[in-house]
Amino acid sequence: xxxxxxxxxxxGGVNExxxxxxxTDHSISEQMVSSATGSTHQSASFGHPHSVDESFEFxxxxxxxxxxxxxxxxxxxxxEKRRYVWSIYAFARVADDLADEGDTPxxxxxxxxxxxxxYLDECYESKPSHPIFIALGRTVQRFNIPKELLANLxxxxxxxxxxxxxxxxxxxxxxxxxxANPIGQLVLHIFGNATERNVALSDNICTALQLANFWQDVVxxxxxxxxxxxxxxxxxxxxxxxxxxxxxxDDRFRKLMEFEVSRTRDLFVAGKxxxxxxxxxxxxxxxxxxxxxxxxxxxxxxxxxxxLHSRPALSFMDKLTILSTxxxxxx
Length: 331
Hints:
By secondary structure, the protein is mainly α.
């Protein structure tokens, strides 16, 4: 993940630093937490009131400074909804970086995530002081968003700190139910479309997206000491954790990854009705997201499942094709 090319941003007269590429540096994310805890920096940073509009603008700049495989509040999201999506993204982005970036000791990461959770409590008690939570507070009030969804995300981030292996596929699904599924449900709430059926369809798509990302980034995760391929699946195909770490690619590994890709595709297919059953305002965004995830699986297949030596990524032409396909299907 990128650490350089930091973009200088001014917010409410306070200079903040947000990277312009993949991820906020952990020290910057930590500063966002510690600066509102009553430390000596309080009066100089987030200790004074900020307007709701300033807070939403801050979240927007944070969102726009990051690259993701899938669209975040893209032009296909109605303009009046984008600021609310940005507020959720900012909340999750900083928490994710606290859990994942830099070389901070695990205990310190958990302490910072705990403080982020306290800010969430304050947000639901209608007394936020941090700009991200000022914006988020307005979002949860307007759309009656259950606190559990945001709290579940924090559970996943804590798991990122404490859990590096997954014994079973069910263990991995439990993680996805906290790391990925709440995002789709939050978007449905913002669009007033969180019916029981839509939530179930969204959960299938979001879990599939998370799994596709895992299969895409096996090596990236290994470099962080993590392995998301369930150990029971490795055993099923006679493959070992040690061989993954040594990047051994043979028929066993290819069959293992073919198995993972196949059941991930099944989840995408199970969630596909949402593309047409959701409110029209979500159709194109959902189509882009769904086709983007499916294309990642196709890229893995095109590599003959060797994700240990090449990272399957969406090219410009892939994205153009996905965009064209999504637009044509909506006409």
